[in-house]
Amino acid sequence: MPQRMKWSFYGSSLVSAYWNGAATYYRGLIRALADxxxxxxxxxPDAYNRQQNRDIPDPEWARVHVYxxxxxxxxxxxxxxxxxxxxxxxxxxxxxxxxxxxAVAGMxxxxxxxxxxxxxxxxxxxxxxxxxxxxxxxVLGDFDLIFTYGGGEPVxxxxxxxxxxxxxxxxxxxxPTTHYRVTPDPKFAGTLGFLGNRLPDRExxxxxxxxxxxxxxPGETFVLGGSGWADKAVxxxxxxxxxxxxxxxxxxxxxxKAVLNLSRDSMASYGFSPATRVFExxxxxACIITDHWLGIEHFLEPGTEILVARSRDEVIEIVTALTPxxxxxxxxxxxxxxxxxxxxxxxxxxxxxxLEGRFT
Length: 360
Description:
By secondary structure, the chain is an alpha/beta fold.
């Protein structure tokens, strides 16, 4: 493997987290690759008002090429990125995904590797299982390998069954340069906070674990951040903030007594799929309460580094009994574990190990 590789990465957006939950994952991973000497150009379409809602300017550690969300724009972006050592098509670009997948899969050459990076593997696999004619079935075996940001062996096994040559999970992680503890902000103060966009396969969990918990604890304050919730009926003790920019995530995670993590249905069913907010919150030494999913202990130890609730009643029980001292103990333990074992620097090193020997 070349010590310094050039990467072309086709994804939803590196500079905007607006309706784009994968942004902080891309940033952490690509920044860590850059720190290890790799050159990454990120190609993203000008779509979904993301450029009007940027969280960061173009970073120093990656080039960003924004292209028109048209076939001509896509073809030009593919032409510009065609000379890289590694060419990546991520899932969920949101514009011409099928065409991008077919094009990138066909760019494989001696000395060049093409990869599909699935940031929503459980949903992709469920889609493939339900639709034998899904166009992605025809090209996934043409990629040299599949990376996913979660799912563990259940996801890897199913991807191989669909014809993938190799499937390796590269989990979310902590970038300690961007996510850390800060002084609490009164704007985000409360007993329990939840940060996440309104998505169909998670909304029922948010209703049950968060909104109904707020209704049952009228003396406590709950804080909801994320896009899409403006017309959702919520109790008077639940404060809705709207979209929370990534520059405010540290304050959000540092200001409530505890933060809630709720999985999307597909990710909970496969397990081994911790959301980015788990690592972001742990980086701020937040006390995290999560719904149950297989493999939690691979990342954080239930009861000492994270609190696990299997139902709304258990969330209510945990919140009612949680003291500030106990919350601080759990948050500090989570920060220690994540900082030692789950950083993007470690994830980037794993990516290099996976690619080792493929360029000889």
